[in-house]
UniProtKB/TrEMBL annotation:
It is an enzyme of class 3 (hydrolase). Residues 44-169 form the Nudix hydrolase domain. This is NAD(+) diphosphatase. Transmembrane segments: none annotated. It comes from Triparma retinervis. Residues 158-181 are annotated as: Disordered. GO terms for biological process: NAD+ catabolic process; NADP+ catabolic process. Keywords: Hydrolase, Magnesium, Metal-binding, NAD. Belongs to the Nudix hydrolase family. NudC subfamily. It comes from the Eukaryota. One of its GO terms (molecular function) is NADH pyrophosphatase activity. The keyword Magnesium applies. Its EC number is 3.6.1.22. GO terms for cellular component: cytosol.
Length: 197
């Protein structure tokens, strides 16, 4: 489970006190590390991140990106960490501009999801931007483009029919669009958009 993964990461990363360097003991059913020397209490961290499905104003196409971490053919929503002092919505405007050179006009909150890889909390959004040129940030994005609804619907039907094991290996290869599997926040955002009239 997500909680178990998050707690195990916390336990591995807090064996020593960040204040004095002494050993810690785990308390509160694994949700706290207590320093054996200075009594400093350390709690699991949640690093805020945003993920956003960008649509055109008519909601007939979405902007999806292919990351170096994705298998060939897999395109997903844009995501990034929220910086210090920044709100989730501000992060959507900034990250979309930085990653693909597209200016977002509106942002709508949809849902959130704990993402313990290792310790993130993701806010999910649908953003609206003019369907214009896309300029992927080379270090983070291999390709990004606007996909019409029909292409995304076809990819969704293909992914929905795969076994759990095949879904986890997802990627249709070059020339075949694949999207994230069910039970991910990226897929929830895509499915919400696909369910619109």
């Amino acid at each position: 489970s997500k909680t178990a993964n998050g707690i195990m990461h916390f336990r591995r990363s807090t064996k020593f006190c960040s204040r004095c360097g002494s050993a810690t003991t785990i308390t509160q059913s694994g949700h706290c590390a207590s320093c054996t020397s200075c009594s400093n209490l350390i709690f699991p961290r949640n690093d805020p991140a945003m993920i956003s499905l960008v649509t055109n104003p008519s909601r007939t196409a979405v902007l999806l990106a292919h990351s170096p971490r994705h298998p060939p053919g897999l395109y997903s929503c844009l995501a990034g960490f929220v910086e210090v002092g920044e709100g989730f919505e501000d992060a959507v405007f900034r990250e979309v501009w930085e990653e693909v050179g597209v200016r977002v006009k509106e942002v709508e909150y949809v849902s959130s999801q704990g993402w313990p890889f290792p310790q993130s909390f993701m806010g999910g959004f649908i953003a609206i931007a003019d369907e214009g040129p896309v300029v992927p940030q080379e270090e983070e994005i291999l390709d990004a483009r606007w996909f019409p609804r029909a292409d995304v619907e076809l990819a969704a039907s293909r992914t929905s029919s795969l076994s759990k094991e095949d879904n986890e290996k997802l990627g249709g290869g070059e020339g075949t669009l694949s999207i994230p599997p069910k039970h991910t926040i990226a897929r929830d955002l895509i499915d919400k958009w696909l369910s619109e009239p």
